[in-house]
Amino acid sequence: MLETRPGPWESGGTLVEKIQRIRTILKQHGRLARDAESLDEHADLYQAGMTSHASVNVMLALEGEFDVEFPDEMLKRSSFESIAAIASAVESLTANPA
Amino acid sequence: MKVLDLDANHYTRHMLHAEDRVWVEKNCYVDIWIELIHALGCEPLAMLPFVNAIDFLDDQWTFFKPGHDELRTLYGIDVQELNCWRPLIEHAEEHLGSGRLIATEADAWWLPDTSGTDYRTQHTKSSIILNDLDIKDRTLGYFHNAGYFQLDNEDFARTFQLDIQPRPDFMPLYAELVRIDGLRLLSEAELKSRSAGLLAKHAAGMPVGNPVARFAARFQRDLPRLQDKGLAYYHAWAFATVRQLGAAAELASLHLRWLDPRGYEKAADAWDRINQGAKAFILKAARAVNSQRALDAAPYFDDWSSAWETAHTTLRLS
């Protein structure tokens, strides 16, 4: 199984905290050519070097970290195209858990 | 020596490789042809009818490629196998100097454009096209995947097997000579006419039985093994199966919409259903493999199966 960091956080937390956790996941699994810590929230992750292959691992790590499951309509390339897009998706799922 | 005057830092990709494509990279061989034809000033969409004939053969979807006769018909490009009777760099010096490109298999370990996947991480065979060779400065401009790139130094040396002891067990990789001295730019009307002819040929060559139904049955049998072997194995499986199907479907849809958007709307929409569904499925199946949970794939396979039948019927009757 894909190893995800056993975070001490709950699924909730502020948006700032969530974005930091997303950056950590991107650092571990995104295989970006740029530093995930300093990447602009709206920067295109695919242009920053994330491949389709890596995006699969990022999705799995996000689901493990935030204890969510992306619904079918979010399983598309654009859902993972930027830190902001990921944060928005995670926010909607943690605010309204299935 | 260079064949085409290109700058890797300012290269503009063809729209088939735009970042908003569902599958930016298709397969390595198709990808290099898309970009080379684009860089030559021709329209690569015209060569795509072959993707309609994609089939499922037990452990993989066919690794779709343009036929050499079709490249000649559409663009006047001639492709011959390169007889690698001496070191590749000597062939490259000879042929690039004479205006011929070389398409060759290469080890992605030494291709810096794959920094997100294989570069300095994994030895993987991939296709590139050699275009701009500087032996003195040890730089190479090359087409690979969705773009045009440059490598140098150690990557150059290892790509051409330089600075290492000759190995008696070394086998040269497969390579092709690409002649463009007969290149022709057809009018859009003529190009579409020839592409329509190829579409009729490949529509007639679509599988007789529904390949999605065969894939669905095989997937049900393969899932436990995928779960047992884990994510790395899954990624290799997904590349050979769902990714090839999805990428072929996206290319088929884009080609039909270029050729005749109204006339082929139904078939293009059908291919798009498979294209979009495959992207979601590759993520859902990864989740099932990673979590060891069951996966109800029937809704996907039923939809694709129906969509393939629609594309098949529409194209065969048109």
Q: Your description of this structure?
A:
The complex is a heterodimer of chains A (98) and B (318). Chain A is mainly α. Chain A has one domain (15-95): ACP-like (Non-ribosomal Peptide Synthetase Peptidyl Carrier Protein, Chain A, Orthogonal Bundle). In chain A, 44% of the residues lie in helices and 0% in strands. Chain A is built from 3 helices and no strands. In chain A, helix 1 packs across helix 2 (52-66) and helix 1 (15-29) packs across helix 3 (83-95). Chain A is globular. The two termini of chain A are 24 Å apart. With 318 residues, chain B is an alpha+beta fold. Chain B folds into 2 domains: 8-41 and 78-179, no CATH class; 188-317, no CATH class. Chain B has helices spanning 28-39, 68-75, 88-97, 153-159, 188-204, 211-229, 231-240, 242-259, 265-291, 298-317, and strands spanning 78-81, 101-107, 125-134, 139-144, 147-152, 175-179. Chain B has a 6-stranded antiparallel β-sheet with strand order 1-6-2-3-4-5, with helices on both faces. In chain B, a hairpin with a 4-residue loop joins strand 3 (125-134) and strand 4 (139-144). In chain B, helix 6 (211-229) runs parallel beside helix 9, helix 6 (211-229) runs antiparallel to helix 10 (298-317) and helix 8 runs antiparallel to helix 9. Chain B is globular, with a radius of gyration of 21 Å. The mean pLDDT of chain B is 96. Classes of the chains: A mainly alpha (98), B alpha+beta (318). The A-B interface holds A 1-2, 31-33, 44, 46-47, 49-54, 56-57, 59-60, 63, 69-70, 72, 75-77 and B 19-20, 22-25, 115-117, 230-231, 235, 238, 243, 276, 279-280, 282-284, 286-287, 290-292.
